[in-house]
Amino acid sequence: MKRLLTFFLLLGLIAYIGFPAIERNSLNHPVSEKKNPFVGIQQAWNNQFLPGIQQLASQLQIPLQNLQFSQLMQQISQDVQMLPGVQNANQNVPVDQRLQVKAGDSNVSVRTVADVQKEINQYSIPTLEKSVTNPFQTNVEIVLFSQPATYRHALISAGVDVKNAHLMMQETGGVAFGNTVFIPLYQTNSQVEMVNILTHELTHVSIQQLGIANQLPIWLNEGLAWQEGFNAEQLADPFEVRMQQKEIAQSIRTAYQENRLLPLSADEQDILHANYNVEYQDYLAVTYLEQRFGSAKFDQFLNRLHQSKWEALLHSDPTNSYKQTYQTFESVFGVSFQMFEKDFLQNLTK
Ligand SMILES: [Zn+2]
Q1: In angstroms, what is the span from residue 45 Cα to ligand 1's centroid?
Q2: How far, in Å, is the centroid of ligand 1 from the Cα of 219?
Q3: pLDDT in tens, 173-226
Q4: In angstroms, what is the span from residue 316 Cα to ligand 1's centroid?
Q5: Separation of 277 CA from ligand 1 center, angstroms?
Q6: What is the pLDDT of residues 289-340, one digit of tens each?
Q7: Domain-by-domain residue ranges, the chain?
Q8: Which residues of 112-149 are buried (b: 16+ CB within 10 A; e: fewer)?
Q9: What are phi and psi of 100, to 5 degrees?
């Protein structure tokens, strides 16, 4: 279906297209002030905090050069929220008040903003709360855009380069940058689609707030976001979900039979240039992983990643090979990632 294709294409690349631009802004590679909105904070960081941290790091023998500035800032701001004093201040704030929906341009009506807020409260939050006890620790902003021009402008302001902004303007259904979600309303055809997209993007935000985003390879992050998107959609329209899932499974089976499937470890550029929707494959892989080993094991795996989040951050992996994550994978599931992938592919044709 055309709708499926336009809606689902690149729904999630998002979190990844945005981040490379920001992550490139590492301590070793300062970027120009015009391009990067974070540069002011980074300068403040370099001047005020870095010397102290460097001294501390040398005492602790931490390989500081591996730290990505933006990752560290995100992590620190989240962990500060978890401190007892701060948490007490937030204790009585219901989760839906942490999610604020805003109009990104003057053509987004008050009514539309209210409708989206309602969908989040009715479908996205109950879905995410089933998987995570506190899905949102800090405030989240959801910004709606009525037209490509305003969406594109916002993407560029957020640090996306002009070429990617143009592609995303045409082909994405939503974007998550840290604690902010952008939704281009003109890409969405129905309420169920909107429920799926909102929940998908909010899953990326929640993963990020939990501090495990850097440990999750693309296929796991996207697979989880798809799962939650469908879980929420299931509440709104179970029949539609069944149709979509059938179609997804068929499209991936066909790609496999025609030898077009990329490995699950494919990077953003491979995914951008693939001739099928790689995120469908990610979704099927995560679903298969959970079915084969059970939800308890799957939760245990995510919990182990969560427990080692600080360690993972300090030893951040510049090659993105997710070595530690796959070691945890093997120790929890008792099978290597390579073996799992082989098994997943063989199972596709069954
Ligand atoms: Zn996604």
Answers
A1: 30
A2: 10
A3: 899 988 999 999 999 888 999 999 999 999 999 999 888 988 999 999 999 999
A4: 22
A5: 12
A6: 999 999 999 999 999 998 888 777 777 766 777 889 999 999 999 999 999 9
A7: 2-23+89-348
A8: ebeebbebbeebbbebbeebbeebbbbebbbbbbbeee
A9: -110, 125
Cα of 201 to ligand 1 centre, how many Å? 6
Choose between 46 and 283: higher pLDDT.
283
What spacing in Å lies between the alpha carbon of 8 and ligand 1's midpoint?
Answer: 10
163 alpha carbon – ligand 1 mean position (Å): 19
Confidence of residue 32 (pLDDT cuts 50, 70, 90): very low
Return all residues near 288 (Cβ < 8 A) that are at least 6 apart: 344, 347
**According to CATH, what is the number of the domain 2-23+89-348?**
1.10.390.10
Determine the distance separating the centroid of ligand 1 and the alpha carbon of 37, expressed in angstroms.
Answer: 23
Ligand 1 center to residue 280 CA distance, Å?
Answer: 11
- Its pTM stands at 0.77
The tokens describing 47, both together, are 């001047």
